[in-house]
Amino acid sequence: MFQSFCLHAVCKNFDNFPAPTLKAEYTYTLSCISQSRRQKTLLRYNANWFRFRSWCQQNKLSFLPADPMHVAVFLSNSLRFALSRGLTYSTIEAASAAIFTAHNMSGLGDVTSHSFVQAAVRSCPQRSLSSGGQFRKAPLSLDLCII
Fold first, then answer.
1. What CA–CA distance (Å, rounded) separates 75 from 100?
2. pLDDT value, residue 66
3. Which of 12, 42, 46, 75 has its CA 20 to 30 A from that of 90?
């Protein structure tokens, strides 16, 4: 399961390994990586990475490396879906984590830490899905400003 996620993320062309023994070592390394995480996490990452990759391919966008704006649009679409289904913030968090992991394993920068993604997309789902659409802090009152 995780191996398919890794193969798409790390090695764009697995057939470029020069020797069969190196392919075997690579496969063994992937199995070591997959054992370092819980199976449930791996299943979630794989499913979310597949959704993101499919969404990018459908829209003719690069998924590796991904553009932060495209990640933001994908996550905001995921937020819309989560809100309509009554899902929790972990839905968006898992999608973001899958995108982060694929980029990290590929030696690419973290597109999910881009300020646009953080401020405009990840913070909004966390607030709207975690607290039932209510912001936790009360807005600043004009009366307090005058005092």
1. 12
2. 94
3. 12
Helix, strand or coil, per DSSP, at residue 143 = helix
pTM: 0.69
Label residues 50-72 b or e (16+ Cβ within 10 Å = b): ebbbebbeeeebebbebebebbb
> Residues 4-61: pLDDT tens digits?
555 455 555 455 566 677 777 877 777 776 676 677 777 788 889 999 999 999 999 9
The Cα–Cα gap between 106 and 116 comes to: 22
Instruction: Write the CB contacts of 7 (distance below 8 Å, at least 6 apart in sequence).
Output: 14, 30
Lookup: tokens for 3: 């191996």
Burial zone of 102 (CB within 10 Å; 0-12 exposed, 13-18 middle, 19+ buried):
buried
Nearest-angstrom CA–CA distance, 98 and 52: 9
Domains of the chain, earliest start first: 2-135 (1.10.150.130)
